[in-house]
Each structure stands twice: as C-alpha cells, then as structure tokens.
Amino acid sequence: xxxxxxxxxxxxxxxxxxxxxxxxxxxxxxxxxxxxxxxxxxxxxxxxxxxxxxxxxxxxxxxxxxxxxxxxxxxxxxxxxxxxxxxxxxxxxxxxxxxxxxxxxxxxxxxxxxxxxxxxxxxxxxxxxxxxxxxxxxxxxxxxxxxxxxxxxxxxxxxxxxxxxxxxxxxxxxxxxxxxxxxxxxxxxxxxxxxxxxxxxxxxxxxxxxxxxxxxxxxxxxxxxxxxxxxxxxxxxxxxxxxxxxxxxxxxxxxxx
Length: 257
Fold this sequence. Notes:
By secondary structure, this protein is α/β, with parallel strands linked by helices. Helices cover 30% and strands 27% of the residues. It contains seven helices and twelve strands. It has helices spanning 2-15, 47-58, 71-80, 159-167, 178-187, 221-233, 236-244; strands at residues 23-26, 38-40, 43-45, 62-65, 85-89, 103-118, 136-140, 152-156, 173-177, 199-214, 250-251, 255-256. The radius of gyration is 23 Å and the shape is globular. The N and C termini lie far apart (64 Å). The relative contact order is 0.17. The model is unreliable at 8-19 and 249-257 (pLDDT under 50).
C-alpha cells in the first residue's frame, strides 16, 4: 500500500510543471551617476543599486549585477542579450538603432528632475524653456541638456564647478539634477560655506526612469512591475532615496517626484 502511494505521489510530481528560478543579469557601468549609481572600482552603491537589491528580494528570479563596464559596452551586451536588464533609464535615451527594437519597459521607477540653481536672491522667473534664451547657464562638459539651443553654455568639469560658478555669479543660473544636488549638499561640508551658497529654482525637465528588459525575457515583465509597485507602495523606494538625498520630493507613500 505504501509503495502504491509513493508511486502515485511521484507520478503526480512528474506531471506538475516545475517553475525554475532564472538568473537575470543587470548592467552596471564603470561611470558614476551619483546618487543613482556610485561606482568606486568594484564597490557599487547608490539609489538604483539599493533598489535592485530590494527588487531581487521581491522576485522569484535571481538578479545578478554585471561587473562595472563602460556604458557603450553594457549597451552592446544588452543588444546581444548577454545582459538582460538595465536599471534605470529613460526610453528617450535608448532610441538608437538596435536598442529600441530589443527593449521592453517597466512601469516608471522614479523621475530624474533637472532644476535651476541660482545665486541667493538672483533667481529669475521660469515657465518655459524659451525663458532661458540668451542667458549664461552653468553646465557640465559633455552632458546634454534639454533647451540648450536657447541658452549659452558655461561648461565646467563637474557638478562642483557648476555650483561654484553659480554661487560666484559667473553664470546667471545652473542646471543640476535635483537628487544629485541634495546628495552633494548633505555629504560635502564645503557646500555649506558662504562662497558656495545657491538656491533651488524651478524644475525644467523630467525624465521617467524605467527598468529596461530584453525582449527575449518578456515573461518576467509582469512580475517585475508588480515588485516595483510593492516597493513604491510600502515606502521602501522612498526610504532608499531619502538615505542618499535628504528632503527629496516624496508625494504620498513611496511616490517619488
């Protein structure tokens, strides 16, 4: 009787579909984009790094980070399917031939916001990109900016150079990512000095950051979207953002703006 029962159980198990966890590799570049990705050799941190770890804990599949690689190399590997996930970029950044065709997109994870910075008391009204026409705007060399056709770029080497140019009145304003500014302000004592003081202005551009999934793995998208919603709704994502960028805009529970 026991043998018959065991055989019946084994037969039943053989007929039940087996769901195996799959390893999905996500791209990590060797260029920092603080505070979203902070790369120091093989040591990785930042908002999106912590988000991917939290996402991994909510999924049946195993998410594994790639070794830090040049950005163009990671895009090539994604196109070829050797990397299955990229977190997190705007759809408008991956319109190049060979990229858009292999991409599926998750729901928005969070928004990257570019805002104006002014020297104290030197702000000017802003409603449209055309309001920047003819003005000298501090920027970072090599970066692209929405509306740059209207203003005169005053390029510096990095965000610190941008902030200093604005604070010293060498530019009428600067354009900087909101979370990057709040990350730097909270961690760099130099930015508390009087000669570095600036004021936040209006947001001039928003980019929705989404997880990009290779189309060969479309069956994972629904679970990924469900996990993203859970991390937003239970406040996990908001707590991650606040750890790197205090006073970040959080509307409601876990909704990042």
